[in-house]
Amino acid sequence: MNKVKIGNRYIGKYESVYIIAEIGINHNGSLEIAKKLIDGAVFAGCDAVKFQKRTPELCTPLDQWDIERETPWGRMKYIDYRHKVEFGQSEYSEIDRYCKEKGIQWFASPWDEEALTFLLQFDPVVLKFASASLTDIKLLKKAKETGIPLMISTGMSTTEQVDQVISLLGNDNVLLAQSTSTYPCKIEELNLNVIKTFMDRYPDIPIGYSGHETGLAPTLAAIALGASFIERHITLDRALWGSDQAASIEIGGIFRMVKDIRDIEKALGNGEKIVYESEKNSIKKLRRYTDFNL
Fold first, then answer.
1. Which of 19, 240, 281, 293 shows the greatest Cβ crowding within 10 Å of its Cβ?
2. Are 108 and 116 in contact (CB under 8 A)?
3. Which CA distances in Å does 191 have to 15, 59, 90, 116, 195?
4. What average pLDDT does the segment 212-218 reach?
């Protein structure tokens, strides 16, 4: 398996699992909430936080612009809501400054070419593409030209579509995540064994997991299956308003998840069967023969 360098970190086999706290749009347009979520990710020991960047007019279907919906700011047109939850230059400049101050990496998922151009000014360590963008060939080609590592989620996709995107992007500087795009996702639809399928099918690409389930057990199982990186949504409160909140983990849960992942890493070891120093007294006490008595 090739390793991919993300800033000062490598992602790949026998490297420490790279843990991403997906803030996404759980900030609900508030820089204050975004900072609290960054603080939570730092407290938990995550390696990075991730946001989403859209140009509302490009990412919102025209027939949905004028549909009215209830929001925390009152009833408004959907296109106006999309602008309400979208951070711009001043917010991302402050996020960039704040993450550097806190010592945590940050990046975002560009949903369109204009958003990609916007994010490049911050020299991102990686570009993450949501499952919805897996078939956006023009966007992915433009991203590939930057030379920045690309992380691709594979929800809503067939094996043939994943093959096509890998054929387009190649094996170098690419990371692939098993994912199911339902929020929250049923346990029986997580299909974690796809992680192993991807590892066999794309042996030169680090494989990870982007989870949208409730709870932590499946994510921990993904580590045991060999996931090199993990992405889970983070929230201050799962009951807050927003489409992703219910599929997110509160800060206390993220803290437990990171601790458990680090414990699993230690427990998995390197696969070589050895006798540990701590076992030698047990050999003396418990074994009648120190070797095979043939």
1. 19
2. no
3. 24, 29, 40, 30, 8
4. 96
